[in-house]
Design brief:
By secondary structure, the chain is an alpha/beta fold. It has 10 helices and 15 strands. The strands form 3 sheets. Strands 1, 2, 3, 4, 5 and 11 form a 6-stranded mixed sheet that branches. The protein is elongated. Keywords: Amino-acid biosynthesis, Aromatic amino acid biosynthesis, Lyase, Phenylalanine biosynthesis.
Length: 336
């Protein structure tokens, strides 16, 4: 792996892509895979993976908020941030940042298998560890291993897993060891005391590439659309009404969750991912239905699914079905 400085946004003409840093995070791994998708005109076609330096310069940021604010200000062309983990669920700060402030859109997504290692200064033993630093999501996903193997240790939270390793390397950490990605030990020249310490071996995290608003890429047949629906008034059956906009048009939801709007107790919005592309009639009509009935709908983008699974369109909900129905209605109105 290259040294951390090799990933920072050095002076030069390369477009910049922010990510939740520091170097060595799972987000950097995702950013390297998503960098060529930032925009065809920005990417040179060089595949940024493994040890190969991406054509887009990567800029580590201390928080998700900082990374997305750089996109809003135009200082970077995009940002890669975590949005969902298969074990711990959504990343609230990312959902809230996308739901508020100047609009941003998701241009692409990637999933990264999550594996953890315990790293420390060379010579450290498991018995000597009393304090372990790591990100809250990593702590939750290694809880059983730590309880079994480090019963004397207490876990403290850091901004990222890599930050926990970086603190040990530069001498600023108060903890003895860090739970990080396997790559962090090489980045910070620390010793790996244990590998594969995650409690769930199939865990993975979903990351999204966020840019300023623009026309979404063309449909691929394997797409996802994200949005935030702000309800108008609280009343019985409100959630059912919202869901029916999708169900009646055969649009499957892959994620829906409520988030507080911050406007007061009981005021919530719904963060939604659905299968399909806004260019498809059934998705477009579902969004129009929400626009009519909700206080506000924030469109967060239509983009290719990371797993490439094509959307199954039910009979009667394809674009051709909608066109035929429009033609039928027009004939009735014209008295044909």
């Amino acid at each position: 792996m290259p040294a951390p400085d090799d990933h920072t946004a050095a002076a030069g003409p390369s477009p910049r892509l922010a990510f939740l840093g520091p170097a060595g995070t799972f987000t950097e791994q995702a950013a390297r895979s998503l960098a060529p998708k930032l925009a065809p005109k920005l990417a040179t076609g060089q595949q940024a993976s493994g040890d190969q330096k991406p054509s887009v310069a990567l800029e580590p940021c201390s928080t998700v908020t900082v990374a997305l604010d750089l996109v809003r200000s135009g200082e970077v062309a995009g940002a890669v941030v975590p949005i969902e983990n298969s074990v711990e669920g959504s990343v609230p700060v990312t959902l809230d940042e996308l739901a508020t402030g100047d609009p941003l859109v998701i241009a692409a997504e990637a999933t990264v298998p999550i594996q953890f290692s315990l790293i420390a200064r060379p010579g450290t033993t498991l018995e000597a560890i009393t304090l372990v630093g790591t990100h809250p999501h990593a702590a939750a996903q290694t809880r059983k291993w730590v309880a079994s193997n480090l019963p004397q240790a207490r876990v403290v939270h850091t901004n990222s897993t890599a930050a926990a390793g970086a603190g040990i390397a530069d001498g600023t950490a108060t903890w003895d060891a860090a739970i990080t990605s396997p790559l962090a030990a090489d980045h910070y020249q620390l010793q790996t005391l244990a590998q594969g310490i995650e409690d769930n071996a199939s865990a993975e995290t979903r990351f999204v590439l966020v840019t300023r608003p623009g026309a979404p890429a063309s449909p691929t047949g394997a797409d996802k659309t994200s949005l935030v629906a702000f309800i108008r008034t609280d009343h019985p059956g409100l959630l059912l009404e919202l869901l029916e906009e999708f169900a009646l048009r055969g649009v499957n939801l892959s994620r829906i969750e409520s988030r507080p709007t911050g406007a007061g107790l009981g005021r919530y919005c719904f963060s939604i991912d659905c299968e399909g592309h806004i260019a498809e009639a059934r998705v477009g009509e579902a969004l129009m239905g929400l626009h009519r009935t909700c206080d506000d709908v924030r469109f967060l983008g239509s983009y290719p699914r990371a797993d490439g699974v094509r959307t199954e369109v039910e009979k009667g909900t394809g674009d051709g079905d909608f066109r035929e129905a429009e033609s039928w209605l027009a004939s009735l109105r014209n008295g044909d």
